[in-house]
Amino acid sequence: MQSLYALNTSNSDRLDIQEKFLLNSIEKIRELYLSTLSIFIELRQLEEDILDKSAKKYLATEIEKNPNRKFVNNRVLTCIAESDSIHQALDQEKIKHFQLNDQYVHQLLSEIKQHDLYNDYMNKQTDSFKEDQEFLLQVFRKIIAPNDKLYHFVEDTQISWADDWPVVNTAIDKLIKDIRSEDYIIKVPDAFKNQDDRKYALELLRKTAINTESFREMYADKAKNWDQERIAELDSIVLNMAICELTKFPSIPVKVTINEYLEIVKEYSTPKSSIFINGILDSIIKELKAENKINKAGRGLIE
């Protein structure tokens, strides 16, 4: 989507440049995913260091000698912080954003400890895996993911990460929910699932770019009731990509295409865009079916 936007808004028609940008952007999403996961590692280590330092003080109090270690012992946090696959990936990619910029980790830990979530959790008499999971999930949703300073740091580190941040946060939210036990083995995904996945990304870019004008003709009349100048450039790109999937990718079900692009629009475009996109796509699909221009391979792929 970013590559197509760059093609549409620049004077260059160099598709090869955008192909390289696309592949690099996808690799960078993985880097952001790993970097964000490293925050949990750094948070746990920082709190561990604080507790150890307090316990070693010459005149340490009884509480400092025997602190409440519920946060550092959180089972889900520990699962992430001690994951071999995460550490291996971070080492291989030499990702140290939050080791080198630990002020963000200090700030996040401070905010966590001042939040009612933390106080309620630390003072609970009960202790269960489910409580650990729910606590970490709420910490991520309410404190880490929406943190403005963290977002600006991410944006300054890599400009494309500003758009990738919601996608990565959704993936990490899902990971926390997927961890069901203390011995859960986290698998760090590759940038592409396989070569077919990589091929699909490049083909979608190429076929959408090459057929942009013909795709636009398919919805030009249908968009007459909408103010043409107010139709976001992004909406046009999303429509082109969706039509490309509908007509050029026989293995992708129609419903998958519709749901996928409606989600993209809800995340990135204007409030009314999803209504606009849904209406236009519905009309186009009816026409394409009537003209037998949607040929999906496999049982149940048309509906």
From TrEMBL:
Keywords: RNA-binding, Transcription, Transcription antitermination, Transcription regulation
Gene Ontology biological process terms, A to Z: DNA-templated transcription termination; transcription antitermination
Domain NusB/RsmB/TIM44 as annotated: residue spans: 193-286
Organism: Avrilella dinanensis
Keyword Hydrolase part of the UniProt annotation: no
Keyword Iron among UniProt keywords: no
UniProt-recorded Gene Ontology molecular function terms: RNA binding
Gene Ontology CC: one annotated term: cytosol
Protein name: Transcription antitermination factor NusB
Similarity comment text for this entry: Belongs to the NusB family.
InterPro entries, alphabetized: NusB-like_sf (IPR035926), NusB_fam (IPR011605), NusB_RsmB_TIM44 (IPR006027)
SUPFAM superfamilies for the chain: NusB-like
NCBIfam families per UniProt: nusB
Organism domain of life: Bacteria
